[in-house]
Design brief:
This protein has 423 residues and is an alpha+beta fold. The chain folds into 2 domains: 175 residues, no CATH class; 184 residues, no CATH class. Helix content is 27%, strand content 24%. The strands form 4 sheets. A 6-stranded antiparallel β-barrel has the order 1-2-5-8-7-6. Strands 13-14-16-15-17 form a 5-stranded mixed sheet, with no helix packed on it. A two-stranded antiparallel sheet has the order 3-4. A hairpin with a 2-residue loop joins strand 13 and strand 14. It is elongated, with a radius of gyration of 30 Å. The N terminus is likely disordered.
Amino acid sequence: MGLTNISHKEVVKSIANFQNDLLKNPYYLFNDQKAHIVDYLNLNTKKSTLDQALKIPYSNLGINSPLRFNYIHNFYLYGLSRIATNLEMGDFGLESSEVTGEALVLPNTITPYPGDYFIISFINKKKSFLFKVTASTMDTMDDGGNFWKIEYRLESGEDGKRVKNLVDDEDHFEFHTGTVGSNFASIIRKSSWDLAKGLDDAAVMLKQFYLSLFYNKFVQTITCINLYQHSPLNLHSSYFYDPYLVEFIRSNKILSNNGGEYVYMGHKTTLDPSFPFRYAKSIWRIIEQKDINNIGACTILTYAKYIDDPATIFQTRYENYFELVYKFGMTVLDENITPPIQILDQQVVGHVIENQLFDYDSNYAKYNILIKYMNNEQLIAEDLKIFERMQECENNLENFFYVPMAIFCIESYIRGLLAETSY
């Protein structure tokens, strides 16, 4: 480009912007500090009686204490130094100096107060040390996030029991590092965390179950073996591939974080130009949008057409592969088209619209998750136990279509629990 070559300038600008983006990382200030996992007792300002003038707690940990604390399990403190004491000869003999130190609190997590406590436990949990926060100072990072520097001192072990007695049952929280600096809450109520953890375990189990049944390593995508009948004398067993289901799984990352190997999910056939329009009218988009008003009018019937495109991976296999087509007006007179295939039972659609659950001993009980999700109802343990009855041989079209729906609903509940800002 001669004298107007600005590539070097652009490279330098790119490097500078990259360094600036690093400042937005909530951990960048703490990269040279070691994290310590503690149980942190943060003053509950709503339930405690404070000195109205100084806005600090009264010094009282007895049975009639006006203080209440939020108990945050597995909280991270950065920069804790090793305990070191100096021995000196005092008026009463050999004495040790007071154990004090400083630590840093991650930005946008909690507001530490003088009078807070934190507990450091040994690995075997048989012995622990209690520390009291004596001062807290706020500073602001370059991206606007607030972090705190606290000062602390070692307290008597007996005070630990008295402090724990000042925590109400509903005020136990869990610290989740994966959501620090995101739109999700990092301090999550313990009951919500336990529920989210149980839901996540169920989702991982369903993902592994689904991949074991339907992931076809020969064509590197999900397929389902199904019997269909063109005529009374023509019965075949072939593989079915659904690009609309693949789009649902791909765009919502349904099979990611499956507890095993990464599975790439992409389209294996050429998409029709009308694909986006048909997808928008399908049951998959209705579930994504939680559009209960239009679930009765969406596409829940599909047909399968033989894949004869030589450019696809399916033509490298000797098995017969059929692609599901979401289009009305097609007839079974075409020898390459199968009879209609139902994605979702019409009875289930009716229950979703009426917000009517199935009995838990019914074979349809697994659809209660979808019914509750579409109607903004909360899940209970019974809704997940139904999946424990599923068998490894249930590689049918019903599970082929529904299990991804169930995973999507479960993970939507998890995101809702992690987004709660109840702290």
